[in-house]
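Example record

One chain of 331 residues, shown exactly as stored in the release files.
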Amino acid sequence: MANILTQSEIDALLNSLSVGEAVKPEPEEDADKGVRIYDFRTANKFSKEQMRTLHTISDNFATVLSTRLTGMLRTLCEVDVVSVEEQLFGEFNNSIPLPALIAVVDAAPLTGSLIFQMSSAVVYGIISCLFGGSADYTDESKPFSEIDLAIMTNVLPQCLSIFESAWEKVAALKMRLERIETSPQFTQIAASNEPAAIVTFNVKMDSIEDMMAICVPHFLIQPISKQLNSMTWALGEQTSSRRAPDAQLEAQVLDTKVRVRARLQKSRITVGELLQMKPGDILSTNHRIVDFILMDVEQIPKFKAVLGMSEEKRVVQIAKIIKEQDNSERQ
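Predicted structure tokens for this chain:
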């Protein structure tokens, strides 16, 4: 600090240069030597290690989100991290430009909420591309309609699922969209002097380029603050790399939904009989009660079952699995 000139010394130095005289530095006051005003209310709550880990998480989120938006909107989208910095929540909330889309997100099992904020240009660009247009909307002052908010209610959960995956190496969080607001006065999720990590992204699509931000209050991630370090991230990468590709593929296949249909024997009726049918009529078939019912999985015969009743509902019980060679012989 001793090598830093005061404003009076700088002015005297400039004057001496103009007249060509030497300047003697003024003696420093011993009472103020080495003393600096410090406000404890603005002390950093996030360590450098935690901010670096948040930056890594945000980079992964931006990379995957770019790919997801490109596929969903059918146009090239680029999402890049601009900055990750600590800021008071009140300062962030007051700096949100209007109109803006502000999503309040719950991150279970953590207590509290975080904020996803998108500028109007990004929102209108996404909506325009979803309906076959191009991202070139320039009227950023137009307020959002109920239809716009309804569309973004379906888009935001896809972004949250990516953000959830970006956190999985640090903590298992379940992101859920609580509500969408268009004014910062309705998104007071923390005290104004609460420190928060603000992640700012730059979003490019077609001719639109604007900002998106995520606000993570300090109290929200305080329970997992010790996990926000490079060691936890490295261990998470090692664990994910040990997972066999076959196991990952199997997990995805097991979660895939398929259509199952049980069908009786076919019956024939005339058009006249069909037109005369009314609720309560009984349609007879050639199916005997002792015969198996054929069950199709995605229109492919897979099981043989028997008909029954359970809690006043018609049910079928699988009795036999149809082998692949049986299907090939029928074909």
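Notes: The radius of gyration is 32 Å.
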